[in-house]
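Hi all, posting the design record for the shared folder.

TITLE: backbone redesign
STEP: 1 of 1
STRUCTURE INPUT:
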C-alpha cells in the first residue's frame, strides 16, 4: 500500500518537482531572454544614437544656406535629412537636395525639402552619405543597400563628400567587420561572365545578390543586378577599383577610393569623432 501510496506520493512530488523545474527553467529562460533582449535592444539603441550624432554633426558643420546638397541612401542619412528639415524650420535654411536613390528621393519629399536633380544642378556643394565600412584612408565600401552607383555619381560631382556612420564602421582595413563583400553593379545580361572575370582576376567569390521579399535577383534603381564580391584580403583599392571598372558589364563598384574628405563616426554614447582623409 505504502508502496502504492509511496509511488503516488513520490510521483506527485516528482511531478511537482518537475513542474517547479519547468517553472524555474522558464523563469530563468525568460529572464535570460529578457536580459538578452534588453542587451540587444540597448546595443541597437547605441548604434542608432551613434548614427544620429554623426549625421547631425555633419549637417551642422558642412551645410550652409543656398547650397546644393547630395543626399545619400541607407539608414544613417535619415537623421541627416531630419536635421536639414529642422534647420529649414529653425533658421530658414535654403538648400536644394539631390537624391542618390528612390529611397533618398522619398526622404527628401517626406521631409518637405526642395528636391533637385543633376540635370538642373550638375555641380553640388556637398554630398553627405553613409557607408558600410570605412578604413584608415577613408576608403569606403558602399552599396549595402544597392545604391552605390547614383551615390558615387553624386559624391563625385560635389565639392566635398562627407561620410557619416556609427563607430562600428570605423575599421583599420576593409573587411574587418563588413563580411558581405564589395557590391558591384552589373548589367543583368553580363552578370555571369563578369562573375567569372572577377573571380579569375581577383580571387574570392562574387555572389549574385538575391532579393529577400521578391523571387530572383535584386534589381537596382537603375535596372541592373549586383554581385557582392567577397574578397580574400585587403588590397590596393585604387588599383582594384580601376581594373574592375575596365571589365565590360560592370556599371559601378561600391569602392569609394580617395573620395571622402571627412568622416564622422558616432559612438553609442552619442560622442562624435571626426577624421580627415590622409590623402588630402
Ligand atoms: O547602398 C546603400 C548605401 O551605400 C548606404 O549608404 C550604406 O549601405 C550605409 O547604409 P547605413 O547608413 O544604413 O549603414
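Okay, here is what came back for every position:
SEQUENCE:
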Amino acid at each position: 500500500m505504502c508502496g502504492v501510496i509511496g509511488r503516488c506520493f513520490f510521483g506527485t512530488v516528482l511531478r511537482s518537482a518537475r513542474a517547479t523545474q519547468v517553472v524555474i527553467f522558464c523563469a530563468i529562460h525568460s529572464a535570460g531572454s529578457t536580459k538578452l533582449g534588453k542587451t540587444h535592444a540597448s546595443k541597437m539603441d547605441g548604434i542608432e544614437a551613434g548614427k544620429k550624432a554623426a549625421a547631425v554633426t555633419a549637417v551642422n558643420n558642412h551645410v550652409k544656406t543656398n547650397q546644393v546638397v547630395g543626399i545619400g541612401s541607407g539608414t544613417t542619412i535619415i537623421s541627416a535629412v531630419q536635421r536639414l528639415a529642422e534647420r529649414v524650420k529653425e533658421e530658414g535654411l535654403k538648400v536644394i537636395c539631390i537624391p542618390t536613390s528612390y529611397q533618398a528621393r522619398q526622404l527628401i519629399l517626406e521631409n518637405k525639402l526642395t528636391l533637385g536633380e543633376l540635370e538642373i544642378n550638375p555641380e553640388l556643394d556637398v554630398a553627405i552619405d553613409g557607408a558600410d565600412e570605412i578604413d584608415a584612408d577613408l576608403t569606403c565600401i558602399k552599396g549595402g543597400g544597392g545604391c552605390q552607383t547614383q551615390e558615387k555619381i553624386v559624391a563625385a560631382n560635389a565639392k566635398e563628400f562627407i561620410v557619416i556612420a556609427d563607430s562600428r564602421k570605423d575599421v583599420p582595413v576593409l573587411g574587418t567587420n563588413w563580411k558581405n563583400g564589395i557590391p558591384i553593379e552589373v548589367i543583368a545580361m553580363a552578370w555571369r561572365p563578369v562573375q567569372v572575370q572577377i573571380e579569375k582576376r581577383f580571387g574570392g567569390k562574387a555572389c549574385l545578390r538575391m532579393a529577400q521579399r521578391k523571387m530572383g535577383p535584386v534589381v537596382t534603381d537603375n535596372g541592373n543586378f549586383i554581385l557582392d564580391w567577397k574578397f580574400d584580403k585587403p588590397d590596393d583599392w585604387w588599383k582594384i577599383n580601376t581594373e574592375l571598372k575596365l571589365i565590360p558589364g560592370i556599371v559601378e563598384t561600391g569602392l569609394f577610393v580617395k573620395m571622402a574628405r571627412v568622416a564622422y563616426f558616432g559612438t553609442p554614447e552619442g560622442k562624435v569623432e571626426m577624421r580627415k582623409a590622409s590623402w588630402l
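COMMENT: The longest strand covers residues 158-166.
Let me know if anyone wants the other runs.
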